[in-house]
Amino acid sequence: MIRDITIGQYYPADSLIHKLDPRVKLVGTIVYIIALFVIDSYIGYLLAALALLAVIRLSKVPVKFILRGLKPIIAILLFTLVFNLLFTQGDPVFKAGIITITKQGIRLCITMAIRLVLLIIGSSLMTFTTTPNHLTDGLESLMGPLKKVKVPVHEISMMMSIALRFIPILMEETDKIMKAQTARGADFETGGLVKKAKGLIPLLVPLFVSAFRRANDLAMAMEARCYRGGEGRTKMKPLKYTGRDMVSYLVLAVFFAGIIVLNHVDLLMF
């Protein structure tokens, strides 16, 4: 299960998406997320799915690697779907005792499942195709105007970059601790919910100790290198827009405009 968590990981490849400016990918991810919440028709979701498939194809990231990241959230996804299916009021299509399934509940269940899957895959592609350093530079550049109102843009970007870097490290550390505890007789799989929760104690304690130790080592390393924030710092490779970045912005604008137009189409709706 730990190995299935792919969030925050970078997948190196020589693709068009990898070569795009990180600001384009950050804006594209935000626009895509907004579009998913704006969509109100199945044809709109079809367009969003086709656009996502096209980006995946251009990114050269294996589909199996992307889908592997969905495994850890299957339980949350199923809980959300069942909750919406059983507790949405409307026109009943099935009734058995206290269980009532409505037409609106079925539609909400389907749209919610599509939206969550597309949302997770779409946002994950940004980290798959962008290094943490580039993400930090892109985020700091986009948030640049906030410096005028005394927002610590560099510090916020640095914290997000460090968090992204620590995710795969902590996942690897968790996997090592689980193997070590299993070799000592710990059982993380069998038993009820209470037993499984108690079984996590020998896993969480050393994990927290390791996380604090790594954080302390990182702080000491930054202090030893006289790190004092972003004031007056320069970049070895400053971000510059190219022609493909401008084309990408144009494609994003066309995509979002298409979503808005299709939002008024009632085809394939219940």
TrEMBL record:
Keywords, alphabetical: Cell membrane, Membrane, Transmembrane, Transmembrane helix, Transport
InterPro entries per UniProt: ABC/ECF_trnsptr_transmembrane (IPR003339), ECF_transporter_component (IPR051611), EcfT (IPR024919)
Chief subcellular location: membrane
Keyword field contains Membrane: yes
UniProt-annotated location(s): Cell membrane
Membrane topology summary: Multi-pass membrane protein
Molecular function in Gene Ontology: transmembrane transporter activity
GO CC terms of this entry: plasma membrane
Coiled-coil stretches: none
CDD domains: EcfT
Quaternary structure and partners: Forms a stable energy-coupling factor (ECF) transporter complex composed of 2 membrane-embedded substrate-binding proteins (S component), 2 ATP-binding proteins (A component) and 2 transmembrane proteins (T component).
Function noted in UniProt: Transmembrane (T) component of an energy-coupling factor (ECF) ABC-transporter complex. Unlike classic ABC transporters this ECF transporter provides the energy necessary to transport a number of different substrates.
Family per similarity comment: Belongs to the energy-coupling factor EcfT family.
Family matches, as HAMAP family: EcfT
Name this protein carries in UniProt: Energy-coupling factor transporter transmembrane protein EcfT
Native source organism of the sequence: Anaerocolumna xylanovorans DSM 12503
Gene expressing this chain: ecfT
